[in-house]
Structure formats: structure tokens, C-alpha cells
Queue: 2 jobs
Job 1
Amino acid sequence: MNEEGQLLWTAVPQKFGTRHVVSFSYSPVLGLSDIDFHQITAKDWRVMKSPAADAVARLVVPSELSISALHDAIALLHTKGGYATVQVLIK
């Protein structure tokens, strides 16, 4: 992913007003999944795509996730899901 981006680091959750927020999770075992822990396969992306141009993907990840795996998850949300904004929550 050779695109320019911005990292906003804060301990206070960002409020996105009226923007759609779609929740995802990522684990080293399951990979990327929806909020109900259903794995997202290639055919599932058509229903998991960004519902609006300004929608936000909220990605919940475990604290032990590697930077490389986090990068891959964000890249998937951007390229396959069409999300321009990804909020990462570390649990």
C-alpha cells in the first residue's frame, strides 16, 4: 500500500457525528471478521463495503497483534471495503 495517510493517535475515542461506523475485528486466528466474529471471505466483501463515501471502519484488534498484520487489515478495509477512515481500537 503506497498511499499517503494520516495517523491520529489518541487515548480518547473519536466521535464521528452522523457518519456511518461499521465495526470489524481482526485476530491472528480468524483474520478479519465482522462484529459477530463471522470471517469475511472474498464473496462477503460486497455486503461489507463502505455504505457511504465518508463511512468509518472501526477495527478492534488484540494488543499482541503485529504491526505487519495491522497494516494488512487496514489495507484490506481500504482496498476491498472502500473505507478511507479506519479507527483502530486496541483491546
Job 2
Amino acid sequence: MKVNWGALGITIGLILVAVSILAVGLMAGRRMSRLERALKEEIAVMREGMKRAIIVQSYALSTAESKKRGVSLEDLKEGYGLARQFMEE
């Protein structure tokens, strides 16, 4: 039986290319899922910080407005205490 070495070489080469493309696709998928998880965690932390800032600023501004004066450091400290209570619940 005569073997066509050219066709066999091309076939083996194509199989190796297909396997390498599959491997790269799987690695990229895993990397993307890790990045997605990290991004979701980071977004959750940022969202919590934004909620805290909104509570603090709202409290400080409303307190200052009700007393007809500017926002003071004490207003912000009380706002952080209030935000801490809300965030714990």
C-alpha cells in the first residue's frame, strides 16, 4: 500500500491547528469568567461605597439646610454614623 505523505502531513497539520484553536478558546473562556467574577465583586464594592456616600451627603445637606447654615464636619461625621447603621442592616 502506497502512502501519500503530503496528504498525511497536511491532515496531521490541520488536526494540530484545530486542537490548538480549541485549547486557546477554552483558556480564553476561563480567563473571561475569572475577569467577569472579579468585575462583579468590584462593582458590588463600588455600589456599596456610592450608597454610603449618598447617605452621608444627603444627611449632611439636609441637616445643614434645616439649620440654615453650611455643611460642617460634624454633619458629615453624623452622616457616616447613620450610613454605617443603614449599611449594617
